[in-house]
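The freezer alarm interrupted the setup, so I double-checked each line after restarting. Inputs confirmed:
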Amino acid sequence: MAQEGGIVRDEPALQRRDSRHPALDFTAPAPPVTVASVTNFVEFFIAEQPGLVRYLLSQGADQYEADDAAQAAFEEALKAWVSIQHPKAWLYKVAWRNFLGANVRVREHETPTEETLLDTSHRLASGNPAEFTDDEQMILDAIKALPPMQRQVMGMTIAEFSPAEIADFLECDSAAVRQNLRRARDNLARQLGLTRRRVQ
Amino acid sequence: MTTPNPDNLGPRDYDAELDAILESGMAGILAKLQARLEPQAALADLQNRVRGQVPPPNQSDQQASSAADEADTSRATSQALQAVCDRIDAFDFYLRTVLRSPDDFFAGAAFIANARPALLQLRSGLANRSLTKSQAQRILDEIQQNLDQADRVMRQQGSDLDAALRDRARGQTASNGTASAQMHSLHTHVMRLFEGSGHHAALQPSR
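Predicted 3D structure, all chains:
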């Protein structure tokens, strides 16, 4: 915060984050919640929520699971908002883990009980389920059918992450990302009948 | 037919067609997901989660049936509820206008910004009839505390909340009275909605 002529001016949250070294700054007080940070979060939520849900759908989630995992990730993002340096990558990683965690928890209950059965009647945070066209559903299904690594790479590529960002996310090198993307595209082309059509 | 070597990262003859299919399909999916997103409700839900105040599940069938029996008497409540929602919208518009005025950052602005999500949460909870009286009271207290804090900060700068809001929103809103007067009025009208329903009773669903 800088003060000029009695007016307190707030620096943009991103500038403030970039100028700090969080690893060396654990004892410092948490950055204040400001107009800029609140506004940034709301804009970020509106901009990223649908894309995040789409990514989770492409990874095998149904709309309820995708909504829940996304909303839980945004909740964690809101709690830590002013200290997150790369919000989109952070959000996708947390949402992905939430989705995996939810699946593991469900699998661990061998016999679902009334408490473990998920009540799907009121769970959508974003209204009613979207109804996709046959073509849209076919593409989603084709991506879901890819092997896990290819599915991740394709999902993140569609979400406009660069190969370097995906490599960082998946903790592998960029060459592996490019190779998996190529294989994913070949598989998708096969599943969608593009290769067959060429032969005919 | 030659099957592409998967390790050959070069272009394929179906790349353009695949890109077109993926782009079209994914854009359609995204558009539908965007269309169903209800930002205010979702953000209010986030705020509830962060505060550990997940709203109770929807009322049981028995309660819903009981609500239907009281439909006639709830008509007046619905009108009062609409009036309160309009009042909240007007107050929120007032605060939003202040925050979006040309000089975006000023002492106390963060507290005013903090009051807005609580206002929206109050509106959403009242409109959905999912708030109890005590929850509504707690949200009103939170809004009041944020505005009090803003006022305190502004007084340290030689001004006060009402003067600052009046100056910054001049000509852009039709505000009625001071912020504290608006809050007092809002508090009265919200609490009136719960009269006769008991401290923990929620408003009955009507829309």
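Quick read of the result. Chain A touches chain B through 57 residues (CB under 8 Å).
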